[in-house]
Amino acid sequence: MVNKGVNESFAPLVAIPPGETVRENMKHLGMNQKELALRLGMSTKHVSNIINGKEPITYETALKLETVIGPTAQFWMNLETNYQLHKARLEKEDGETKELEILKEIPYRSMSEHGWVPNTKDRRKRLENLYHFFGVTSLQAVEPAVQAMFRKQTAIKNVSDFGVLAWLRKAELEGLAVEVDAFNRAKLRRSIPKFRSLTLQDPEDFYPEMQRLCAECGVALVLVPALPKTYICGATLWRKDKAILALSVRDKWADMVWFTFFHELAHLINHSKKESSVSYEDDVSVEEIEGNTMPSTF
Hints:
The protein has helices at 19-29, 33-40, 44-51, 59-68, 73-103, 108-113, 123-134, 142-147, 161-176, 185-190, 192-198, 203-216, 253-270, and strands at residues 219-225, 232-239, 242-249, 277-280. It folds into 2 domains: 19-103, 434 Repressor (Amino-terminal Domain), CATH 1.10.260; 124-288, no CATH class. It is of the alpha+beta class. Strands 1-3-2-4 form a 4-stranded mixed beta sheet, with helices on both faces. The chain is 51% helix and 9% strand. The protein contains 13 helices and 4 strands. The protein is elongated. The termini are far apart.
């Protein structure tokens, strides 16, 4: 018995494969899967997969069903098309629900205040803006994509993971825009006395020179505004064979800038190329400053 009517306004919560209609007609005609498979000239496994929605009804299969159990090949193709469309719609709705849940964890307002993303209260527009910002097609891809570069190593509680990921992404984008020479570790080490000489200057005076010296050594130095609950002091990362050293801009920034700078400089000088790191408030310690990179004034 074939149901020839389709209520297009009805949208069930689950996608029912056309194989269910095949099963109903088998029962009506008194056939089992083995007999139907023989009549269709197909394997029993293939028929079973169609009935259970594991394989689609193709044009060829639709023509065979038309001959064996009726009614028309077009009927079976319509069932398959409607099933696939409804399944895709349900998957999209489920994906959007997950995306909106992740959106709640992202400090969008703070990001927009810094000009990183357009200001909007529309949730779906926020999603689109964040896709462009992170360079992804889904927010579910943000965490594995960015964390592949870093290991979370902070004991601070209540850290905003997506705030950290957003900060690191901004550091990456800013760093890529800075022109630098080829990375030269030896030159960077030799520049330490020059960096130390800048520690006595005011921030508005030493930062331009600090950035210039870094660029000559192949390091893109960038300042990235802090986001709520991130607790980041600085980070080093690599993109397109370019070393990026990012410092967090926050309250009393001048009090921490040099300490954090030399801490991150130690990573670039003493660790292997392409090894990225993030420094939080709890792990920028004197013990972790390796070599002779720490200025004598600290």
